[in-house]
């Protein structure tokens, strides 16, 4: 009997750990993707099931997801934890910084900093070699003195963070002629093409070498230590101590040279993160050489069509997920927004306020909305659906409201005068006449939703945004296109299908096609 | 169609819209089968008065009765289904064809012969159902649309019919044709009728009694001949001469 009970408990425990894979996430830049893939493969090699959520949109989103337990582990940097999350100034050397974040994160959020991986990746303020030569720029002090006419292109993160541009301005008296917010991969291109003159990179970036850039020395030691380490949720620490042990095997194993080499393979040579990580783990003797050898040298060669064809399974899966996100969110938005628009038509005083409120949601940047929702909804499909739903409301509510309100007032008042009840007027006169306008609103919302759904890539909800986010992070144009092209086709298809629905919803006698048949008495 | 209709009565009716006085103590009785024209300039209150009889306008004070029943105590939906109504723009439902428009009130009243009534009513206003029945309003001329609106108002054998500038939006020739057709129609079916118009000659052609309104009050209430012979006020006299009816 006891044996049966024991077997049952064991079965339950196994079922539980089988039901709960370890969720491994990353932020949207190459090194973060690569480290996350290293974590994931190492965990898999130690017998864990892994759920990969790469490319979470920002520090707030990734860390928010660890706090809420939606993500179990992602690679983070101690300096970022200290400055961007704790909002503290560096207490001393890198050991002190690590001890500080480790203690505070555990106390406040039950989150664990595992031992550092062995390299630092600090901000690297970079300029073109020609700029460096002509202006004699070697250090950040040089830039502060002689860079006043230069244009900066920085990640939005960097522009806002106290350990970013504002702090840099204070420490070096840096005043640039112009500052633009640029995505990580875009900024390297912008610098190489001469669109901007100064960017923020990471000291281990493979792209620094690819574009032959000069990194200015932080001669006043402004940037704090940024040691890379796995940041782990308390929930994983409790339910799978073995996973913690597995991740800790990487402690101190990756030095700067190794990391720069791996980043270069990923970002410069365009090798897939999966392969780079697999070979790195083998080189570190952390895994055995068991995986099948595919000696494909699929670097950045070959035609786009061939690339797209090669990725067809991924593209199909992402497209299906994308469509599902849009259909569910849009469907819910229709179910809420159409009745809401109808009700508002009866309450003209409340209507303007409500519609303006719904419009306000529209103006929130997607990333901000997603970051805001993480404490309540976590990451993944649910917050993506909620965000898409919220973004879809406005065009439908507004069109329903004005469509019903403005639907042939003469006909509606005559129908009332001849004895239709208000409900009959609404259902038989106003709504049918408003249908084309309502469907036009749904069509607008649908096309917008197809575009907005790419944001889902930032919170691990899948869809075509995954390819776009990853492609941007890895500076891989073809990967971006493998998401963007299907998304564009999807938007056109959505527009076509919904315009057909719009035409079908237009009652005969109202549509434009009957105007020719006017008969004289 | 032998119905002579309901008796309509307004008793000391007041109505104001904010600061604007639309009706300032108006009393009027329309006996069954009598055709009354409400005449006046824009803002005289004639349309407001008309719309009190089918409860589209509720009065501030005073009383409006249909067959002795206070409209405030009546079920306004049931009341409206008994009273035909023709607005200036016709008010046809653009997404319904002519036959369906004409059959609206019979169907609302649950009449089993709604389709037959719609067709009969269309024939009455001079539109051949087989030719016009399946057309949509925008496939008709303005005059044809008003004919359908009249057919719709009469299809359910109403107790009264209210017409608010029914020919006002038509060109002069069509207006004349329709006026004649309606005069002919109203001779055949004696029905309590209230016609709002700013056109005195139309009132003379169609009404048994003419009520002249000015700034929410009745200036004169008399049969056409009497109005012509003895204008009660200089305003009525001016109206008559301006219309070219009296010099």
Could you explain how this protein is built, in words?
The complex is a heterodimer of chains A (521) and B (247). Chain A is α/β, with parallel strands linked by helices and 521 residues long. In chain A, 61% of the residues lie in helices and 8% in strands. Chain A has helices at 2-19, 30-45, 59-68, 78-85, 94-109, 129-135, 140-146, 156-160, 165-172, 184-192, 206-210, 234-239, 241-248, 256-267, 273-283, 304-310, 312-346, 348-363, 366-377, 381-406, 409-417, 422-452, 465-473, 477-505; strands at residues 22-25, 50-53, 73-77, 112-113, 123-128, 151-154, 178-181, 198-202, 213-215, 228-232. In chain A, the strands form 3 sheets. In chain A, strands 7-6-8-5-9 form a 5-stranded mixed sheet. In chain A, helix 2 links the parallel strand 1 and strand 2 (50-53). Chain A is elongated. Chain B contains 11 helices and 10 strands. Chain B has helices at residues 46-52, 76-82, 98-102, 104-108, 114-124, 129-132, 142-154, 172-188, 200-206, 224-229, 234-242, and strands at 8-17, 20-30, 35-39, 61-66, 69-70, 83-86, 160-164, 192-197, 209-214, 217-222. In chain B, strand 9 and strand 10 (217-222) form a beta hairpin. The model of chain B has no long low-confidence stretch (mean pLDDT 91). Chain B is an alpha/beta fold and 247 residues long. Chain B starts with 7 loop residues before the first strand and ends in a 5-residue tail after the last helix. In chain B, strands 6-7-8-3-9-10 form a 6-stranded mixed sheet, sandwiched between helices. In chain B, helix 5 crosses helix 7 (142-154). The radius of gyration of chain B is 18 Å and the shape is globular. Chain A binds chain B through residues 408, 410-411, 413-421, 424, 428-429, 432-433, 507-510, 514-515, 517-521, and chain B through 51, 54, 56, 77-81, 84-85, 87, 89-97, 104-105, 108-109, 135-141, 143-144, 149, 152-153, 174.
């Amino acid at each position: 009997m006891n044996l049966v009970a024991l077997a049952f408990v064991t079965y339950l425990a196994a079922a539980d750990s089988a039901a709960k894979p370890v969720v491994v996430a990353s932020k949207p830049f190459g090194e973060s993707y690569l480290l996350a893939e290293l974590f994931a493969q190492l965990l898999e090699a130690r017998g864990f099931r892994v759920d990969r959520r790469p490319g979470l949109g920002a520090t707030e989103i990734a860390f928010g997801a660890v706090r809420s337990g939606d993500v179990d582990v992602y690679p983070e940097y101690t300096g970022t934890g200290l400055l961007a999350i704790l909002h503290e100034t560096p207490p001393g050397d890198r050991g002190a910084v690590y001890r500080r974040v480790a203690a505070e994160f555990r106390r406040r959020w039950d989150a664990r900093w595992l031992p550092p991986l062995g390299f630092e990746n600090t901000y690297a303020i970079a300029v073109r070699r020609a700029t460096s030569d002509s202006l004699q720029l070697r250090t950040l002090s040089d830039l502060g003195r002689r860079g006043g006419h230069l244009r900066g292109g920085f990640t939005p993160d960097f522009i806002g963070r106290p350990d970013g541009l504002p702090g840099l301005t204070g420490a070096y008296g840096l005043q640039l002629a112009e500052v633009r917010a640029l995505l990580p991969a875009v900024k390297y291109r912008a610098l190489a093409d001469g669109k901007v003159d100064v960017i923020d990179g990471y000291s281990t970036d493979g792209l620094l070498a690819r574009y032959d850039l000069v990194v200015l020395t932080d001669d006043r030691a402004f940037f704090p230590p940024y040691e890379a380490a796995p940041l782990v949720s308390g929930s994983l620490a409790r339910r799978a101590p073995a996973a913690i042990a597995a991740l800790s095997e990487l402690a101190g194993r990756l030095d700067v040279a190794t990391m720069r080499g791996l980043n270069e393979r990923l970002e410069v040579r365009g090798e897939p993160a999966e392969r780079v990580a697999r070979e790195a783990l083998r080189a570190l003797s952390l895994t055995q050489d068991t995986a099948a050898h595919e000696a494909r040298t699929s670097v950045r060669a070959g035609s786009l069509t061939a690339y797209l064809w090669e990725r067809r399974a991924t593209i199909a899966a992402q497209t299906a997920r994308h469509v599902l996100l849009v259909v569910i969110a849009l469907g819910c938005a229709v179910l809420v927004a159409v009745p809401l628009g109808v009700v508002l038509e009866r309450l003209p005083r409340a209507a303007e306020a409500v519609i303006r409120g719904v419009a306000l949601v529209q103006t929130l940047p997607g990333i901000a909305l997603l970051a805001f929702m993480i404490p309540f909804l976590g990451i993944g499909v649910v917050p993506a659906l909620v965000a898409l739903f919220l973004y879809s409301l406005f065009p439908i509510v507004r069109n329903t409201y004005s469509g019903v309100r403005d639907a042939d007032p003469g006909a509606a008042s005559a129908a009332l005068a001849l004895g239709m009840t208000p409900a009959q007027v609404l259902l038989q006169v106003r709504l049918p006449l408003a249908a084309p306008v309502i469907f036009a609103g749904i069509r607008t919302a649908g096309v917008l939703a197809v575009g907005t759904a790419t944001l889902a890539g930032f919170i691990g909800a899948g869809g075509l945004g995954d390819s776009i986010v990853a492609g941007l992070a890895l500076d891989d144009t073809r990967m971006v296109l493998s998401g963007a092209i299907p998304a564009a086709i999807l938007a056109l298809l959505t527009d076509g299908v919904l315009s057909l629905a719009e035409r079908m919803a237009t009652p005969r006698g109202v549509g434009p096609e009957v105007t020719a048949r006017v008969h004289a008495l | 169609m032998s119905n002579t209709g309901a008796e309509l009565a307004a008793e000391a009716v007041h109505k104001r819209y904010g600061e604007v006085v639309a009706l300032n103590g108006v009393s009027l009785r329309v006996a069954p089968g009598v055709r009354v024209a409400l005449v006046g300039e824009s803002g005289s209150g004639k349309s407001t008065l008309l719309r009190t009889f089918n409860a589209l306008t509720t009065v501030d004070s005073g009383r409006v009765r249909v067959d002795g029943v206070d409209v405030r105590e009546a079920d306004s939906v049931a009341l409206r289904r008994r009273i035909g109504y023709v607005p200036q723009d016709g008010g046809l439902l653009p997404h319904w064809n002519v036959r369906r428009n004409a059959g609206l009130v019979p169907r609302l009243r649950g009449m089993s012969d709604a389709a037959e009534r719609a067709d009969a009513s269309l024939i009455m206003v001079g539109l051949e159902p087989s030719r016009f029945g399946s057309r949509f309003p925008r496939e008709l001329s303005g005059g044809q649309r008003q004919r359908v609106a009249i057919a719709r108002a009469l299809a359910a054998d109403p107790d009264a019919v209210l017409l608010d500038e029914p020919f006002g939006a038509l060109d002069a020739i069509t207006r004349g044709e329709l006026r004649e057709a309606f005069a002919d129609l109203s001779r055949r079916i004696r029905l309590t009728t209230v016609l709002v118009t700013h056109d005195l000659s139309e009132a003379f052609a169609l009404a048994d009694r003419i009520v002249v309104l000015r700034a929410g009050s009745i200036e004169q209430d008399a049969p056409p001949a009497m109005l012509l012979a003895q204008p009660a006020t200089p305003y009525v006299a001016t109206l008559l001469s301006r219309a070219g009816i009296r010099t």
